[in-house]
């Protein structure tokens, strides 16, 4: 009897062990299946996120430079003002961070600039490209006006350190707020761009007037892409708020006053016309690049400046001046050396109606009417696509007149700049 009970208990125990093992194995299989499912879901999510990240491009650059001026406290459009007791300084010229995200027909761009003394928003726009004809695109937000190569060309790519004097005077912040339509088919070398802008750079709008830009461009390559030819024509039609009834315009070589009360609150002319060409040649000795532009038109400024207004409305009388400017840059990249040589000529006459000793003796003329001619040259060394070194020397020459203090002779505003640039 005891033996029978012992055998029965043994069989129950063995059966229990088998049942437990069965359920354990079954649970482990299900757990492994759940783990595999979780892992598969995680991998799919990760792949999706990586694919999304491919649409985001992060780029930027830092320009650190040493500058040596001809004298202490020198003011220059090429560098900004030097401290009163210094003529050589280190500074961060530009520190850019740019985010570019593309999704379907939409492209989103935002860019910041930081230096040792400032931090500001530059690009901030969305661009939509129609998907059918692939010909039309619409951009809205903050961006550079499509006027010419000199303004549009990237600060990290240009051969010379800074843009032409007229660009710095008329577009001091380079960027503006508005909307722009471009008509350009990928297989056609002609494009047309038209835009409507606030005209106040990146500052808030302060009147009902909007400024208009248009640019017609031909850009094509020939001879197996060894030759590139660009020809463009552009216009900028805008206005400057007239803060008082006093408006001065040039009559012969003197300013004539119109103080009609109806002038106050109206818009002074800010009309530019631009013709440009770019020629690029590739040969056994390297790449040669030339860009030339001619500007003319009318600019409303103040008694002391021709600069376009920025963050605030003008407060004094308005001065309308006819202007002209032409500049050209010739550069050559020496084959197999990562080195380029460049020379630039820049001429800017802010008032074509008066010159020389007429400036200062003619009523209301002065420093704002002085013509500048700048000859520049430099060497650019680019050992990698991320690193660039440049040495650049600017020789500005100002128009002289015996009637304006400080301009009876050339002011000697020569400037040497040594720059290191890192891109990422």
How many structural domains does the protein architecture include? Answer: 2
Reading off the top of the CATH hierarchy, the class of the largest domain is best stated as Mainly Beta
Largest sheet: 16 strands, antiparallel, barrel
Overall pLDDT: 88
User: How many strands?
Assistant: 18
Structural class: mainly beta
Please give the share of residues in helix.
10-25%
CATH topology value of the largest domain: Porin
- CATH superfamily annotation of the largest domain: Porin
Percent of residues in beta strands: over 45%
Describe the strand arrangement of the main beta sheet, using strand numbers. 1-2-3-4-5-6-7-8-9-12-13-14-15-16-17-18
Q: Rg to the nearest angstrom?
A: 32 Å
Per CATH, the architecture of the largest domain is: Beta Barrel
Low-confidence stretches: none
Count every helix, treating DSSP H or I runs of 4 or more residues as helices: 3
Whole-Å distance between the termini?
A: 89 Å
From the spread of the alpha carbons, the general shape counts as globular
Order of SSEs:
HEEEEEHHEEEEEEEEEEEEE
Throw out a few tags for this protein:
globular, 424 residues, Porin, mainly beta, 18 strands, 2 domains
Describe this entry's structure for a reader:
With 424 residues, this protein is mainly β. It folds into two domains: 1-54; 60-423, Porin. Helix content is 15%, strand content 49%. The protein has three helices and 18 strands. A hairpin with a 2-residue loop joins β2 and β3. The longest helix has 52 residues, at 2-53. The model has no long low-confidence stretch (mean pLDDT 88).
